[in-house]
Amino acid sequence: SRKLGNGRQSPTSPLKLFGLAKKRINDIFVDISKYMHETNTFLVEIAQEEGIVEQAQGEQTAKYIEKVRGIQEMLGRDRMKVAFYGRTSNGKSTVINAMLRSKILPTGIGHTTNCFLQVEGTDSEEAYILTEDQPQPLSVQSISGLAHALSTVRLKPDSTIHICWPKNKCSLLKDDVIFLDSPGIDLSPDMDSWIDRHCLDADVFVLVANAESTLMQTEKNFFHKVSTKLSKPNIFILNNRWDASAAEPEMQEEVKQQHLERSVAFLADELKVVDRFEAESHVFFVSARETLVTRVHQETGTPTPSGALLEGFQGRVFEFCNFERKFEECISQSVYLQECISQSAVQTKFEQHTANGKLITSDVRMIMESVFEASAKRKKCCQQENHEAQDKLDYTAKQLNLLSAEIKDKIKQMTEEVERKVSNAFTEEIRRLAILVDEFDR
Ligand code: GDP
Predict the structure, then answer these.
(1) How far apart, in whole angstroms, are the C-alpha atoms of residue 180 and residue 193?
(2) Read out DSSP for 243-294?
(3) Which atom of ligand 1 is nearest to the CA of 181?
(4) S-S: 267 plus which of 158, 186, 279, 411, CB 3.0-4.6 Å?
(5) Are 91 and 241 spatial neighbours (Cβ–Cβ below 8 Å)?
(6) Residue identifier of the C-alpha nearest atom 6 of ligand 1
(7) Are 289 and 243 in contact, with CB atoms under 8 Å apart?
(8) Whose CA is nearest to atom 19 of ligand 1?
(9) Where is the Dynamin-type G domain (predicted)?
(10) Overall average pLDDT of the 41-70 stretch
């Protein structure tokens, strides 16, 4: 995660890498799909030729077409999901907005308390909302339009509203990260169904805690449940609203140590998802409100109103950047294969698809090779048949030649015979005529 000074990712950031790898593997599967279709059409065309294509080979390529289609669909869905949990008003939506550098999610509104809000990128120029019970997307022209649209949709508890935001407006969305904002954990949810429906596919969990109070048992219980269902989930604790500490600078360090100790004990001793040393690097003291205000003004190039930021805000904004850097590093590490910590999520997510792609292409190559061999055999057979036919033709021609030479001889003999007979007859006739003339003269 190499963030540049202005907060945008450098080309080597793990997320960029994920995006690039995804595009590359997608392009490869587009090609594989094209070859599969060409192969299948070719096999169907030559299927009439007996002895070249076996029925099973045609069926296998048709199956592979479906398999490749399935992989392409899965690749389309493969995104990095970050889920945010915490009590209502701890600042979950504000944290997401700060990360997205834009006030996308409405904050402090009550309409969405019961449902999940998922922010994901779209290639479309305009934002829209998708709900689970309405097939039609709801158009959203602006952020205020989004709050209005959310207030008009009838929400089923525990449902997910998809906020599809133009990718060109936000670099994290461009890199296929999706953000899930959950209803407040304090609303006594049916945690099992929450976890089953919304958490099992999350790559990173962020617990947004309130630094003005302490970690609540409900928040802890939730993550205890999560860690029974997922092996070693990647959890961050954001002690948000740390700007409140500016009012009591003399207590700041002491309070911070207390929060830090409790957060580390929770991650390392209770959940046992990381050791104490690693746990410390998963706990941050931030002010999402200040970070958001600063970033929104940075984006629009307008000065941040001085009253919006409290004493020591630079440190808190810096801490927020540290959180993002660590978050990106974590997201790039396999969450599914924690035991091989060096393995990146890029590998984990695409490894299976790559293996399948290789298997399909090598299998189809074998099919095509055996078809090629069968057709080469067939060609040889045909050539041999041709050869035999040619031999027969040559023999017949030779016979004919011999025959015609014989006939010529015979005709010659006959002609000579006829000539001889005619000339004999003539000679005889002339002799007879000469005798007659002689007698007559006498
Ligand atoms: P959520 O219910 O957890 O999503 O909380 P929201 O993001 O909607 O925030 C609730 C209220 O807390 C809003 O009025 C925010 O402006 C405010 N808020 C969020 N983060 C901070 C923070 O870091 N400091 C302060 N002072 N207020 C914050």
Answers:
(1) 16
(2) GGGGG-TTTHHHHHHHHHHHHHIIIIIIS-SS-HHHHHTTEEE--HHHHHHH
(3) 4
(4) 279
(5) yes
(6) 91
(7) yes
(8) 91
(9) 76-324
(10) 84
Name the pairing type of β-strands 127-130 and 138-140: antiparallel
| Distance in Å, CA 92 to ligand 1 centroid | 7
Tokens of 417: 């015979």
Task: Record the pTM.
Answer: 0.69
Which two structure tokens, joined as six digits, stand for 431? 């002799």
CA of 87, closest atom in ligand 1: 3
Which atom of ligand 1 approaches the CA of 88 most closely?
A: 2
Using the mean position of ligand 1's atoms as its centre, give its distance from the Cα of residue 142 in Å: 21
Question: Model ipTM?
Answer: 0.99
Give 107 Cα–ligand 1 centroid separation in angstroms. 7
Lowest mean pLDDT among 60-74, 174-188, 260-274: 174-188
Q: How far apart are CA 77 and CA 3, in angstroms?
A: 26
- The DSSP letter of residue 333 is B
Q: Identify the pLDDT of residue 7.
A: 44
Q: Which residues form ligand 1's pocket by a CB distance below 6 Å?
A: 86, 88-94, 107-108, 240-241, 243, 287-289
Q: Which atom of ligand 1 lies closest to the CA of 287?
A: 23
CA of 323 to the centre of ligand 1 (A): 18
Cα(89)–Cα(183) distance, integer angstroms? 10
d(CA 280, CA 272): 13
Provide the pLDDT for residue 15. 64
Tokens describing residue 301: 């190039």
Contacts 24+ apart (CB under 8 A), 104-112: 104/143, 104/146, 104/163, 104/165, 104/170, 105/146, 105/163, 105/181, 106/143, 106/146, 106/147, 106/150, 109/147, 109/150, 109/151, 111/150, 111/151, 111/155, 112/150, 112/155, 112/161, 112/181, 112/183
Q: Which of 87, 90, 107 is the best mutation target for the ligand 1 pocket, counting ligand atoms within 8 Å of the beta carbon and taking the most?
A: 107
Looking at residue 9, its pLDDT comes to 46
| Structure-token pair, residue 70 | 């399935």
Instruction: Tell the residue nearest (CA) to atom 26 of ligand 1.
Output: 241
Q: Which residue has the higher pLDDT, 8 or 56?
A: 56
Q: What's the CA-to-centroid distance between 182 and ligand 1, angstroms?
A: 14
Residue 304, φ and ψ in degrees, nearest 5: -75, 130
Q: How far is the CA of 286 from the centre of ligand 1 (A)?
A: 12
CA dihedral (385, 389, 392, 393) in degrees, to 10, reads -160
Tokens representing 83 are 């889920």
- CA of 272 relative to ligand 1 center, distance in Å: 29
* Contact status, residue 315 vs residue 269, Cβ threshold 8 Å: no
What pLDDT digit, counting tens, does each position of 168-187 carry? 877 778 777 899 998 887 76
